[in-house]
């Protein structure tokens, strides 16, 4: 009698239990290995994110770049030309924001430094006219006599130590910036390769999944990835549109109320509004600081104005542009931003909302199919044997497979 083979599920349970025990036993080594692996794959993930973002305008350009032409030169130039136009579009938007923000910010900082220099000159004049006032004040405050020579020597030593620390920090910062620059270049190159060969890459991944994981798993994986693709695309488009509308409304309102730095503050709020919920308040803090250099009273009025504008935007504009585009209720948007920000900061806020929307859509579709199946089983006879189950279709994920899912 042949021995009975163990069931595959039992083997899977034993393997998972063994991996869990090993993970707990060597937790520190596992965390260190995961951190090193994250540092290695981070440029690849950044490149995939760049490719995904560039793919959105590139597809729009490709639909209008001689779509019915049979000329082989036009067909071969479609992808490079549309990709170049997408890069130019994003660079122009970034250059516009930088051109509006940086010069005004430098002017405001220069004004603050000038005011600080004026106060220092007044303090120097006062000390020149009253040379014994400061030592006597400090001695009275500390309760002991002040040795000027010893104090000056201590200040000099502190300054020398600070300079040494600054030089060491500068070297460290320079090395970090060089590493970030290299990773950025690699990420951009990887993104370009993804965009130029996205159709071939998708076909290869499908073939590998069918060969080693089966057609059923490949179908379900494609269904899940399609929903994630649509949610992330809709989130990026809606967030950019919402940021543009908010920036324009802020600029127009500041012109009406005659607040200074209208263009700069509007551009800043439009840029920071790409961060869900909290972004506009970050831009408002920068704008209030800039206006405060001109007039503290106007800065207070600007804060009142931006709070009212943010309430109108949150209740009228955001639900129409972002909320409806990703299909996620407001309470889950707040939860996604809070959890994502707590786990990964600003990147977590950006990724948390579309990720939660995709999971919400998957759960909603699964519950809907289960209820439909239960209602069908209870209201009619069972389906004939051999009839296949209905394929799950996402409600808003009807995009073509060839439209570049750069995952």
From TrEMBL:
Its main location: membrane. Pfam families: AI-2E_transport (PF01594). Residues 373-407 are annotated as: Disordered. Residues 376-386 have a biased composition (Low complexity). Belongs to the autoinducer-2 exporter (AI-2E) (TC 2.A.86) family. The chain crosses the membrane at residues 37-56, 81-102, 173-196, 235-257, 263-292, 299-318, 330-363. It is found in: Cell membrane. The keyword Transferase does not apply. GO terms for biological process: transmembrane transport. This is AI-2E family transporter. It comes from the Bacteria. GO terms for cellular component: plasma membrane. It is a multi-pass membrane protein. It comes from Candidatus Fusicatenibacter intestinigallinarum. Keywords: Cell membrane, Membrane, Transmembrane, Transmembrane helix, Transport.
């Amino acid at each position: 009698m042949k021995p009975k083979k163990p069931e595959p599920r039992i083997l899977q349970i034993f393997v998972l239990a063994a991996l869990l025990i090993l993970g707990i036993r060597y937790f520190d080594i596992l965390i260190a290995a995961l951190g090193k692996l994250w540092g290695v794959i981070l440029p690849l993930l950044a490149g995939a994110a760049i490719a995904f973002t560039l793919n959105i305008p590139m597809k729009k350009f490709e639909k209008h770049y001689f779509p019915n032409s049979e000329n082989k030169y036009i067909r071969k130039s479609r992808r490079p030309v549309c990709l170049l136009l997408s890069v130019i579009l994003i660079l122009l938007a970034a250059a516009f924001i930088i051109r509006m923000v940086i010069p005004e910010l430098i002017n405001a900082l220069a004004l603050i430094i000038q005011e600080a220099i004026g106060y220092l000159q007044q303090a120097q004049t006062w000390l020149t006219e009253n040379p014994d006032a400061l030592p006597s004040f400090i001695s009275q405050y500390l309760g002991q006599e002040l040795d000027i020579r010893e104090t000056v020597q201590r200040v000099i030593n502190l300054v020398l130590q600070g300079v040494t620390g600054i030089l060491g920090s500068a070297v460290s910062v320079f090395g970090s910036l060089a590493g970030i620059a290299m990773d950025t270049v690699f990420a951009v190159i990887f993104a370009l390769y993804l965009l130029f060969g996205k159709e071939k890459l998708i076909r290869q991944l499908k073939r590998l999944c069918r060969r080693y994981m089966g057609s059923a798993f490949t179908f379900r994986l494609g269904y899940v990835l399609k929903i994630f693709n649509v949610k992330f695309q809709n989130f990026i488009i809606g967030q950019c549109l919402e940021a543009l509308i908010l920036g324009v409304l802020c600029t127009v309102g500041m012109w009406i109320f005659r607040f200074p730095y209208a263009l700069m503050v509007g551009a800043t709020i439009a840029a920071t509004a790409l961060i869900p919920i909290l972004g506009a308040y970050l831009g408002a803090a920068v704008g209030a600081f800039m206006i405060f250099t001109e007039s503290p009273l106007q800065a207070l009025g600007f804060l009142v104005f931006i709070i009212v504008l943010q309430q109108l935007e949150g209740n009228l504009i955001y639900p129409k542009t972002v909320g409806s585009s990703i299909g996620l209720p407001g309470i889950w948007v707040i939860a996604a931003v809070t959890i994502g920000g707590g786990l990964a900061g600003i990147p977590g806020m950006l990724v948390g909302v579309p990720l939660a929307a995709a999971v919400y859509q998957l759960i909603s579709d699964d519950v809907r199919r289960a209820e439909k199946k239960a209602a069908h089983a209870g209201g009619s006879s069972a389906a004939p044997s051999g009839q296949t189950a209905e394929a799950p279709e996402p409600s808003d994920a009807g995009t073509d497979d060839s439209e570049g899912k750069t995952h």
